[in-house]
Amino acid sequence: MVVIADGAAEIAAAAVQSEKASQEAQLRSEEIAAAAEQQSAAAEESLQTVDQQGAALQQAEAGSQALSEVADELRGSADIGKSAEDVASAAEELAAAAEEINRAATQISTAISQISTGAQTQSAKTQEASSALAQIETGAQLAESRAGVAIDKADEMIGALGTNKTAVDSMITAISAASSAAKESVKQVVELEIVSRKIDKIVDAIANVSIQTNMLAVNGSVESARAGEYGKGFAVVSTDIRNLARDSADNAERIKDLVKEVQDRIVAVRADLEETSRQALVEVERAKASTARLVEVERDMGVVREGNEQVRGASQEIAAALGQVKTSLDQISAAANQADTLSTQAAAAAKQQSTGADELASAIEEIAALADELQNG
């Protein structure tokens, strides 16, 4: 019971810690989900901006083609002013396209930065969630271990309770048999008491006979004295009879004393046997109460065992679920690291595009300046 109680206390403490860890893991999961939503929004915005950038690139490509055609015409044209206007117009369209490319590149860079931040947040929160899950897993393993020990101990106790109950039932049977034997002994002692009373009456009768015999002997002595010389022999016989009567009276008195002593002992033995029988009945009732408590304890131990079975089953389910969650977290962490790497590469590409757009804008400015010189010339 001490082992089971200690295990239950450890399971309860681990459950409290696991609950806190699960709340922490849930909070980290919500933060991971929020970062994922932020990444998704940034990715969607980036896709839209990429579409816009693609359109701007097509526009820039068309502008570049138009500018190339105008430049070819300018080489063979006699009207320099009109050709310069065409160059300026194409340069203006190309500048607008370059500006759109640069703006889109800036937006893409911002979205990529948000994706990178979300990925870093996901990675950090994933590690924190993994720590919380590790604590939950430790608690689940502890609960499973302690529940297994408690189940073994409960089985041992249920077996011991069954053995004890059988022993108590045997004791009840033995005490009941002893009580019945004591009652039978009381009956026999009562019979002995009745017999002793009969003996007492017989002894009283013998004493009365001794008295009467003594009186007859006295009468014989008187009659022998009257008879004189002829009564001497009868006087001797009367004396012997009187002596025998006196001895009989003495012996009867001693027998009566012995019978009285036996009667006193019989009374004492009967009282002891009755007390023994009463105590035996009390012990039987106590033993029955003990059996009832053993049955109750056995039932409670069955409840304890069932509870530990549920704890062990729940711990195994938690361990299985944690395995799936850890796999998902590993996938999220890997995806976050990959997203961070890709966002870094995308940021470099966006920066390259922005640099290209700036160079294109500078070239367009030079073309526009050249067109102005042509028009003024």
UniProtKB/TrEMBL annotation:
SMART domains: MA. It is found in: Membrane. The keyword Membrane applies. InterPro entries: MCPsignal_dom. Keywords: Coiled coil, Membrane, Transducer, Transmembrane, Transmembrane helix. This is Methyl-accepting transducer domain-containing protein. Its main location: membrane. Residues 252-290 form a coiled coil. It comes from Kineococcus glutinatus. It is a multi-pass membrane protein. Residues 97-368 form the Methyl-accepting transducer domain.
